[in-house]
From TrEMBL:
Protein name: tRNA (cytosine(34)-C(5))-methyltransferase
Reaction(s) catalysed (UniProt annotation): cytidine(48) in tRNA + S-adenosyl-L-methionine = 5-methylcytidine(48) in tRNA + S-adenosyl-L-homocysteine + H(+); cytidine(34) in tRNA precursor + S-adenosyl-L-methionine = 5-methylcytidine(34) in tRNA precursor + S-adenosyl-L-homocysteine + H(+); cytidine(49) in tRNA + S-adenosyl-L-methionine = 5-methylcytidine(49) in tRNA + S-adenosyl-L-homocysteine + H(+); a cytidine in mRNA + S-adenosyl-L-methionine = a 5-methylcytidine in mRNA + S-adenosyl-L-homocysteine + H(+)
GO biological process: tRNA methylation
Entry annotated with the keyword Methyltransferase: yes
Protein residues bound to S-adenosyl-L-methionine: 180-186, 211, 238, 264
Domain SAM-dependent MTase RsmB/NOP-type: 62-426
Cell compartments where the protein resides: Nucleus; Secreted, Extracellular exosome
E.C. number(s) listed in UniProt: 2.1.1.203
Domain of life: Eukaryota
GO molecular function: tRNA (cytidine-5-)-methyltransferase activity; tRNA binding
PANTHER family given in the database record: NCL1 YEAST -RELATED NOL1/NOP2/FMU SUN DOMAIN-CONTAINING, RNA CYTOSINE-C(5)-METHYLTRANSFERASE NSUN2-RELATED
Gene3D superfamilies: Vaccinia Virus protein VP39
Family, similarity comment: Belongs to the class I-like SAM-binding methyltransferase superfamily. RsmB/NOP family.
Amino acid sequence: MGRKNRTRQRAQQNRDGRPEGKRNRDDAGWGAGYSEIIKENKLFEHYYTELKIVPEGEFEEFMEAMREPLPATIRITGYKSHAKEILHTLKEKYFKEVQDLEVDGQKIEAPQPLSWYPDELAWHTNLSRKILRKSPLLEKFHQFLVSETESGNISRQEAVSMIPPLLMKIEPQHKILDMCAAPGSKTAQLIEMLHSDMDIPFPEGFVIANDVDNKRCYLLVHQAKRLNSPCIMVVNHDASSIPRLYFDQDGKKDILFYDRILCDVPCSGDGTMRKNIDVWKKWTTSNSIHLHGLQIRIAVRGVEQLAVGGRMVYSTCSLNPIEDEAVIAALLEKSEGALELADASADLPGLKYMPGITSWKVMTKEGQWFSDWSEVPTSRHTQIRPTMFPPTDPEKLANMKLERCMRILPHHQNTGGFFVAVLVKKAPMPWNRPVEGETPAEGNPSVPDTPDPSECPLMDGVCYCSFSSVTELHIDMRCSVCSSPPPPKKMKLFGFKEDPFVFLTEDDPIFPPIQAFYDLSPDFPKLNVLTRTHEGKKRHLYMVSKELRNVLLNNSERMKVINTGVKVWSRNNDGEQFGCAFRLAQEGIYTLCPYIRARIINISVEDVKVLLTQENPFLSKLGDDAHTQAKKLEMGSIVLRYLPDPQDLDAPQCPIDLCGWRGKTSIRAFVSRNECLHYLRMVGVEVFRDKQGKRNDGSTETQEESTEDKLPNCFPFCVPYTSDVQPTG
């Protein structure tokens, strides 16, 4: 790997200018333990005082806020039908118990909703990890947060990190690219918005989440997997040269352009000082100067792949205009009118922000200032570039409308610092416009017609446009066949070798027994089912949306896919004797359920409590209705379905589908530990374990008596407080 590529990869791996392993901006701030670091940096204060990004008279307040720990923030996942139930549980139980508490003489402030986040689905609190562990009631709240986070129902995420996805205005049919996605909190938001209508198991849109760091891609997979979506694909590429993808449309291979792109670029991270305390002693202007070029290259690659009419949101957790307005100005200038800054001022009512600035200077780490490119000595031309300065033409500057950018300052709403801008693509980029005499690609006027890559003579039979990274545009260096700019290098793949993604055919012998056993509806999309092996027995079956299948089949040699698909069936050899070797997987139950017409038992709230607090209960433990249904079924995998009763407002008002197994005389639910806890809370069962291993009633259990042994799906202790159903062995 060349020196420049190594530098680029390190810059993107250490997203916020931090050493690897430090906490990132997408995590919520849960207290600080950095008392040994003095929160002072005179150069930082001098720089931002001179730039005047903070309103007059507020700078001291700004600096005081920067020195305070960041409040903890949580977001309730919005696409799951259970979001309202979780919000109800939080507001009516946990928040009420917390609001009047005092710990060590400190009054605990009740959590408050973020005023600008829709439907009260995001909250912030001053609770730190240390305080959470000092009171049993707070510890209970902490356990709730941990288990609900693991089951994907809550995300701990910094408040300002939630802003970019909201400004993208996502709809279920949108094709979305997240260019620098790890660790994945924003990606999770994008997935949620895609699934805003839970009655549609396969939205037409999808999210492709990319990151340059192979290891961080697996953090991304973990975040995405919590949401169990068939519409997410994680890929591993350098964002500045992410390959152009293709898909079949009406029998013709076409270029994939995205409706929405999130361009959350690597940055110096000086807006994160409240939680990344080491930034205080390491901050210099050279961080921004070194990242500016990479940020432009990533943003240019983004707008190249944006569809005409699409929106790209550019964001950083830096307050520095060299990483913010300067990058936007360079993009607008390169676009020659193809891009426009959108006015997003009315999109998030209640959000306080400062408009973008139109005048700034560049300062070296030694404190030397330059107001214009003409002042920069030749010896510094390799570090300081013309694009770091504001445009000198007043008319051009005014037409850019940089004031439409948004800078969030920490002291205005007790958040981190952040910058965001919304770009709309009005026309093809200049270097993608058809050359005179060429015919635009059919169905999308934004690029010239691209021949089969095998016709391109420039890169061993592979077209340059698959790997282009536009830095300096030299038209005379375009490919003579497809007019694409040349890349610096051919794409290289790093990291682990992934198992293949193998789609099944409609006549695969796996399907008939599955179809018969579960009575799948005729419209079940067999072609969307894939496995991860070419040979031997298939252990797991996964599903993706039709659109992602299209992308996968047409780009297997062009991109490195880390993960995609949601698991829907797992092999269970014992099941073969009952007619089907595959049992249902809880991860994919909401994807599969619209197509399953058999093996369903309708259950009540009391049945849910029995199934999740008892190990292999006898069929007779179920209510009469569920018991009658269960007796009619043969042994094997089943769906346990709870449907809400609008007349019973004390019961959960959302449907619940659980995977289960109907045994010879008993029945059980196959649910992960944290999902078990989630569903128990929904039906009114208190779930809490104190530090001494005591149950809520005050008794102490030995290891042999532990409720964990009695409740294999949950950790101890599950203590029903509204039901007579007691855990049994």
